[in-house]
Amino acid sequence: MWQPVLMISGHILIVLGIIMLVPAGLDLAENSGEWSHFVSGAVITIFFGISLFLANRTKIERITLKQGYLLTAVSWLFTILFASLPFELSNVVPSTADAIFEAASGITGTGATIMTDVESLPQSILLWRSVLNALGGLGIVIFAVALLPFLGIGGMQMFQRENSDSSDKFMPKFSYIAKRIVFVYCLLIGIACLTLFLCGMNWFDALNHAMSAIGTGGFSTKNNSVAFFNSAKIEFAVMIFMLAGSLPMTFYILLLRRGNPDKYNQISVFLKTVAVFSLFVGIYLFLNSDYGLLTSLRYGFFSVIATVTTTGLSAVDYTDWGVWATSVFLLLSFCGGCTGSTCGSVKIFRWQTIYAFLRKYMLSAIEPHRVVPLKIGKVNASDKITTSVFVYIFSFVICLFALSLLVSLLGVNFQTAIASVTACITNVGVGSINIIGPGGNYAFFSPLVKFVLAFAMLLGRLEIITILVILSRSFWRK
Prior knowledge:
Elements: H1 2-30, H2 35-55, H3 65-83, H4 85-90, H5 96-107, H6 123-151, H7 156-161, H8 174-198, H9 203-214, H10 232-245, H11 249-258, H12 265-287, H13 293-308, H14 323-332, H15 348-366, E1 375-376, E2 379-380, H16 383-409, H17 414-425, H18 447-461, H19 465-471
Antiparallel strand pairs: 1-2
Helix pairs in contact: 1-2, 1-3, 1-6, 3-5, 3-6, 3-19, 5-6, 5-18, 6-8, 6-9, 8-9, 8-10, 8-11, 9-10, 10-13, 12-13, 15-16, 16-17, 16-18, 17-18
């Protein structure tokens, strides 16, 4: 069972090690003295990758269901551990727990940080953080499109049916999926980088924020995030690209293939949700602050988009707006973007399913003999998909409260515990309280709490069920 899992994981580590040489090259050009740490990390990562690949080399004809779960969890865990090496070796973090936390936050697209002054960091470290955001976003898209239907977790099965017909199966092969997703993803990052440069950022900041926005990761090169630039043009561009990252990558592939893709129901619902809540928050801010109408709408739209897309970039500290506003953003963090996007959290598709089920139940209560189909958009949802959605939501809530209680037992007050676990398990990164909000960070937590929060990030990123299945006793029975 383990041989193909370790072989593929070894291949992933080889690629990760090669990518580490990119910030090493930047550091050599900048002469900041950190290049040797990246080269050392790359050598260690590539060595372990080659060892795993050669020791477990085999012809893979098919991946079983158990191997699919193992491959997902093991590859992400290995990636986090080895991605932490540049942080650990360069001594920019005080402990191993901090290095793993930062790497987990980057690769899961959470954007939570233990760095108290990112502007003092070498550019190579800043680039590595953003590269992790980009790699994590790309990885979760391929995972969502290629493996989620295989694992039966729910969401992508419906998503594929929404954009297929009997004569044209949508993306039947993994290699077909991966190549086109990588092309679209890199194209979006390139467009975002050029746009942000034209809006006033330098090339380095533009590239880092492009990877962060498209990957919906949230890492920035500035302590105050996007607020540092104080530019409406830059904020508008970042908003557009955060939204672009929150849409299914396969949507863009259909645009390139056909020019007129089938309508994605979840996209229209998602964009309407963002628009409604952004207007609501903007008007609230206008009525309860000294901001003018346009400024209120600007900050309202940016903050809502950053939260709903689980990006976590900030143009203003919304924790200063009062308890009511922060409560709204706490609830918005549970929304998430579209299935098949780089976003974390619950995803809009699952909320559509719950709404459709509730509507069906109410109609059946009024008219017991009426046959009411469970429709999401124009497509009928199967019982399997509905069940998987409810199981996911139930597991999500249980894990949220269990991890919050655990963090609280480790000496953190419950308000901070639930805010930090929520920010990590939804992959938003920015908490709903000031200490871990847009102007805060996670440096004050103990090493053990950081490990728990890093686990929460991975748990949320891999759709909860993947990890829970592996941790169950029945999974290991023959």
